[in-house]
Amino acid sequence: MGRTLAEKVWDDHVVRRAEGEPDLLYIDLHLLHEVTSPQAFDGLRKNGRTVRRLDLTIATEDHNTPTLDIDKPIADPVSRAQLETLRKNCAEFGVRLHPLGDVEQGVVHVVGPQLGLTQPGTTVVCGDSHTSTHGAFGALAFGIGTSQVEHVLATQTLPMVRPRTMAITVEGELPDGVTAKDLILAIIAKIGTGGGQGYVLEYRGSAIEKLSMEARMTICNMSIEAGARAGMIAPDETTFEYLKGRPHAPEGADWDAAVAYWRTLRTDEDAVFDAEVVIRADELSPFVTWGTNPGQGAPLSASVPDPASYEDASERFAAEKALEYMGLEAGQPLRSIEVDTVFVGSCTNGRIEDLRAAADILRERKVADGVRMLVVPGSARVGLQAVSEGLDVVFKEAGAEWRHAGCSMCLGMNPDQLAPGERSASTSNRNFEGRQGKGGRTHLVSPQVAAATAVLGHLASPADLTDATAAPAGV
Amino acid sequence: MEAFTTHTGRAVPLRRSNVDTDQIIPAHWLKKVTRDGFEDGLFEAWRKDPEFVLNRPERQGATVLVAGPDFGTGSSREHAVWALQNYGFKAVISARFADIFRGNSLKNGLLTVVLDQETVDALWELTEADPTVEVTVDLEAREVRAGDVTAAFELDENARWRLLNGLDDISLTLRNEADIAGYEAGRPGYKPRTLPV
Ligand code: SF4
Asked: Is the ipTM of this complex over 0.90?
């Protein structure tokens, strides 16, 4: 019987297999950041252990880093101490680190791909659940806890139970104005936040094949929001083209050997998935969340659902709680929801294509009065690229704040937070209670919807702009 | 890791589904660089409400958390497990756990027990009606017992063996050093490296 993509990559990394035990899996790339590593380094020190493969390990600073005044000392002493701990640990153990201010600094899941370190057929781990992002390259990539971070540092392996596989086949073509973010939000709403649990998802089908690498990363990024630890997309010409010439991509004969291997990384015709979901791309429209988990979403054209319409008691209760927290009424059109803040950034939508999409909409337009808009590039390099294209000017002229790279308002560990009761349209991946600041209310959206929302002051798609705004340029 | 064989204690019925890791321990607590001192951050937002079940006097000293489905969704933060343990919980019961949370908890000796929702409902009713009821989580017998509720649970044999003996994964893996070195010798040269060779 044939094998799926996930099974092929898995099999190629089994160091040891024994009856009744998890497989021992080799890890090709280990990404570190300041939040989930200090206790792991402590563990190594306590047991007199070293980092087994410094050449497969890399660290950056992202979660705590400020996005303003980055040349000044960090104001919050606790954040500063955590960053200093990472710097000390990396110096002591010899780990390559890209600290704040470095040109390669940024959100760990933006940095890996942009350096060309994330490659097809590799295993990638990081103490962060959105490691699933790297699956866009046909890598098997998953988030791990701090004990596992320590385990990988010490052994470059992980004992893992083989996951099941789920195919998510998306056929057809995404309509104009419908993005990868809308697609993944719709997928999560369909299968639920627990729907992917225990599975590696493989996104496939004609709609997926047409996506750019960055859009594929947006999709795989949010696999964890469907409960799956990993999501993958088979590598193809789009993948190879993206990788070619990146700093850590193979060269010469190595490139040819690598591509030959990468071409084998496709699910065999006769392979069988443990589960399968089919989505029609043509039927999709811009999608936003109304609740407090990423599965609580609906098309922008819809209304806030009535909790009473849920059959399942715990879903009904969750919806009631969510509406209460979000300060929304059942039946209220989603388009009528006014926001205070718009956040464009994160490892979901903080790459150059996302910034271009948002800038295209803001060009010659203004952010609505009373709305604060933050644009935070996913990495310092993305920021530089945006500046070289003049996107920063577009944002600033529209009245948005252009910031330095980092996780920023995605999780509000740095000063970029929502105040209690404040409402945001955010291109990030989690709308949990308090995620963007205590009492903050989050609506997950695409960069396009974020930009249109910023202009109109309420949840909106770019299509709403044509008639609604008498844009100065007559757009 | 501390070994887990069997534990008996009073319970906290937490009638909520999709309790994500941001609820268990909010992000600002993640700046700490130790494994302890997270107890005050546990369910921090909800604990502001004096009626929140954890705040009720009759729940003080309880050690078994009985939660709704999809407990521990969201981030990979192991701090969620440490916060539960620092607070005093020894076991969490739910109809479904998020994968990463479950892996993290088992690595730290916090037993996560999967029971069907009907049994969870029965445990909620039982412990709400009488907060003094004790719940026994017996890993040797793979059984939860409380009042007239007895329910078997599954846990894979390897994880159970490690928990029962309190074994540390890294030492176990390092026994297979030769296999790891052997695998490394055969890795293709085109695989990415973070450092110049
Ligand atoms: S951008 Fe958000 S989701 Fe991504 S790594 Fe940072 S905090 Fe996590």
From this structure: yes
